[in-house]
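Replying to the earlier thread about multi-chain prediction with a worked example.

Input:
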Amino acid sequence: MSALIAFVSPVLLAAAEEGAEAVQHFSDGGALAANAWLIPVVPMVAAFLIVFFGKRSPFKGWGLAWLSMLFVAAYGVTLFLSNLAQGITYQGAVSVANIGTSPYGTGLELEWGWMVDGLSIMMYAVVGVVGFLVFTYARSYMEGDVRFTWFFAAFTLFAGGMLVLVSAPNIIQLIVGWELVGVSSYLLIGHYWEDHENSSAAIKAFLVNKVGDVGLFIGAIIISLSAGSFRFTDILDVVADGNQHSALARFGFWAGLALFIGAMGKSAQFPLHVWLPDAMAGPTPVSALMHAATMVTAGVYLLGRMFPFFMAEGFGDEVRSIIIVIGALTLLLTGLIALVQDDIKKVLAYSTLSQLGYMVTAMGAGAYTAGLFHLFTHAFFKALLFLCAGSVIHAVHSNNMSDMGGLRRLMPYTFWTFVAGTLALAGIPIFAGFWSKDEILAGIRFAGSSESGFDVVQGGAGLANFVLIIAIVGAFITALYMTRALYLTFFGTYKGHGYPHESPKMMTYPLVGLAFFAVVAGFINIPGVFHLFTDTVGTRFFGGFHELEHHAEGLHWVLAGFGTLAGVSAFLFGSMLWANDAPTQEERDRFWIPGLYPLLAKKYYIDDFYMDGIVRPVRGPVASAVDWFNGHVIDLVINGAGLLATKLARVVYWFDQRGVDGAINASAAAAGGSGGLLRLIQTGKVQQYAFLIAAGTVLLVAGFIVF
Amino acid sequence: MLINQFLLLGAALFSLGVYGVLSRRNAVLVLLSVELMLAAVNINLVAFDIMNQDPQAGGQIFALFVIAVAAAEVGIGLAIVLMIYRNRRSANVDELDLMKL
Amino acid sequence: MVLGVTFGDWIGEIENWVYAAIAIAMVYGAFRVVTTKNVVHAALYLVITLGGSAALFLLLGAEFVAWTLVLVYIGAIVVLFLFGIMITRAPLGYETKLSHPMRVRVGAALVSGALFLLVGGSLLDAYGSDPVPVAADATRTATIGQSIFDRFVIPFEVISFVLLAALIGGIVIARRDPEDAAVGKTEVGA
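Result:
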């Protein structure tokens, strides 16, 4: 441990002295980066092995999964540290195919590769560390489950898919990873598929994602064809050239919008957010890893990867206003719904949606580092909160807070780690969430100021300021619903059945680990003091856009103050409402605004709109029309082909009988007949033989004479 | 005298002998036709001998040997015909078809 | 058919007259051998043919062969034939047909005719008008005797064995079975 500190501290000090500039001297990372292709490959191989050999392997497949995540975590952290020491930018690739030329003359190369730069390294570390801790927890949580091995196979597949996504140096591989995580999400949400609700939730998640994916595909195609390459570096090269008349610039707005729609689907932005709460039907480790820390951040990652594109004037920058608005809407509306949920996992799900809104808003406002930093810290404390919830659910055997209460004495580890997570989420100073949320606020503020380029976009500055207000209100609401959850779950008297007890060590140790990160993870990017995170993610092939960002020289006291004020006041307000005990949870939960509450409870009727407006019509009339068409038109062709085949078979049969068999019989008859004829030569009469000899000789002689 | 007149005569006798061998039913008559062929051969031999003026008269000696062989052959042939006649009471070659399939 | 000699020239020589007469007789005899319906007549017609060939040999100057032919061929072989005919004739004057039906005869005629034409054509083509230089003297018997015991002594010895074999063979084949003799079976038609 001390050796680790000894190794790390000079690195930290050196990085701190670097200051605000991005690391100028990038290395190519040596063997560490060149072998980074192992990072996505090892989990994929492990998933494959678990599928086929899981039941027979030690720990029924969990061992393989856990080891692969340990490998990824170790590798990711190593890369992270060496990136801090000397920035790495490297992309390795293996060419798979060349699929011809784009309309603009360049070749389109399909590659499989691995990107090793600041952004990807950060994601590797997050997926690895959080994944490792969640996998440890999951062993104990999923104990006794009838599909234990398959669960870990799908979970490892997810990890592999996520790593494929974040290691993608080209947009096609990103889509591959995108779809992989989508599939694993479907598999894992529907893990308890015996209950029809759960499989419906899985399908809903998949289909809503798919709606977003349409945008992703269209965006990917437009961008890669107009830039002439699938590779991100090539695309961003075109952006860096700044040619306003290039194809990419002409289609930039639509491509960027389409890409953002894809991001909306995966990162559950309003109005494509509806799948995430229902996804809570899956086991808690799944919710912790996928629907809090990693999979849902894929959209934010995409925005980060294509960040210069969205920042560059004339390319994608007009989409920014849309991004900010959607992010802000998500942030606020979903946070409000969290106030009225009884299911603890649903509270956390809506909280995730809200935080994703923060990240997307940050990206839209141009606060690249802030958005990604929030992604980083959120991964830790949201996973922590989910795992605590899982621990509670495990003990109480119910998801609903109406069956909980007073658990703080019975489950101390869970309680204290939950508190740590809550404080981090609420943005209380010192804790991780404070630093990241503060940076986001600062970023939005900067976007709204005249120094940024954002104000030249129509109404950009005013929009940013409006969004800032919403973000601060969102911080208030965040703290409010978390306080509610805290009180209803851990305080008061126990309202449920049975005797809940603390979870086993295998579940509590990861909680402690994540809580540690929830506290300290924010320290690596204290404005004005440390710039580790900024330097890390700033290590990219294109650092130029970084200057568009605002790097706080120091803590923006006013904004930090507002954020903290919002959080603390929410906590106090919440304590007022929910700290007191009451015979039932419903009575405790007496926050009621007449018009707002039913609207919130019905989630703004969006789900109903989707169901009645889209799903039912398709299922009913459209589906039966298609079925009729299929049965009468398409099947007609098939049946016709079948009839034709039968008739043809008859003809062939006739031909076979008369023709072919006739030929055979005829040849047999011919053989017999000729035999009969030739038999006549064998008369036994020597004179006849002599005659034949003489005739033959005459013919031969004639032949010799003539020729 | 032309050589051809002798050779053609030999050819004619030979052809007639072939005709006799193929068309006669009586075994003795077949043998008779064979003798005819041998006579034709003799004419050819002697004619060539005289044409080539062989000092050692090889052709003529060959002809003598042919006569001797013809004698031997006729002896055996008639003995066989006799045996057949004894067994079957007929010298008809048509009836000698035990070798047929 | 290109003959260097015209028919008029050919007829001019007296030898050719003789030859023509003999040849016509021979061909007629041979023809009758193969077509007569009487077996004995066939053997006698053969005598004519053989006699004609002996005459031709004399014409060519091969005296020894000519007279040997008369002695052996006509004197012995034809007589043998007549004996054979006598023994194998059907009893009570019952004569079966001596030749095959017309069908077979036509086929045989075709074959032999084709053979004659081919051979004749080749001969005319090969020898054309080559003459036969008949020597002033006939071939001396001494010459032949000398050759037999000089150049052809081995064939001579072999011929004697052949004749011996024929002799023994003929006796063995034609003798009666000892059992039949004991039983007293007599020859049929004797």
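The radius of gyration of chain B is 17 Å.

Feel free to reuse this layout for your own posts.
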